[in-house]
Write a structure and sequence with these properties.
With 151 residues, the protein is α/β, with parallel strands linked by helices. It contains eight helices and five strands; from the N terminus they run H-E-H-E-H-H-E-H-E-H-E-H-H.
């Protein structure tokens, strides 16, 4: 087990936003992100509407570049505003405001239409099956999108 000093010395991204209506899935994602020493901060939102409000708050802050998440883990099936509805709002309203934010769909779906739909959004860089696993995060660390953070 790593000490707090060892964790602090590990390179990682600044922030991940996990968007999921299932509290157990959020807890598992947080545990895996911490186990992989992936992010300094993990924030959560219970649905797409909550996530948009979170992004609005960041955009209105003075340090928006430091506060923006580099990664959003997005569930598809949520009440109020699902993942697809979130993406339909995010792309025109926020993608340009937060150009360094990437999205990964994190879902239990096996529907081929969902995988095809994800490809319609260039901001979506991958599609992970629930639950989130440390191996997926380790592979993400060496991907073109995040390798600069993990040196």
């Amino acid at each position: 087990m790593l000490t707090m000093e060892e964790i602090a010395d590990k390179p990682m991204i600044n922030k991940v936003l996990c968007v999921d209506d299932d509290s157990l899935s959020l807890t598992i994602s947080e545990l895996m992100l911490n186990s992989a020493s992936f992010s300094e901060q993990i924030d959560t939102a219970m649905d797409g509407m909550d996530a948009l409000a979170y992004l609005d708050t960041i955009w209105e802050s003075a340090e928006k570049d430091q506060k923006a998440p580099q990664l959003i883990l997005l569930d598809i099936n949520m009440p109020v505003m699902n993942g697809w509805e979130f993406l339909e709002k995010f792309v025109p309203a926020y993608q340009e405001k937060f150009p360094n934010t990437k999205i990964i769909i994190l879902s239990s779906t096996i529907d081929p239409e969902d995988f095809a739909m994800a490809k319609r959004f260039p901001v979506v860089i991958d599609f992970f099956s629930k639950p989130l696993e440390v191996d997926s995060l380790e592979a993400l660390k060496v991907s073109d999108h995040f390798k600069t953070f993990f040196g």
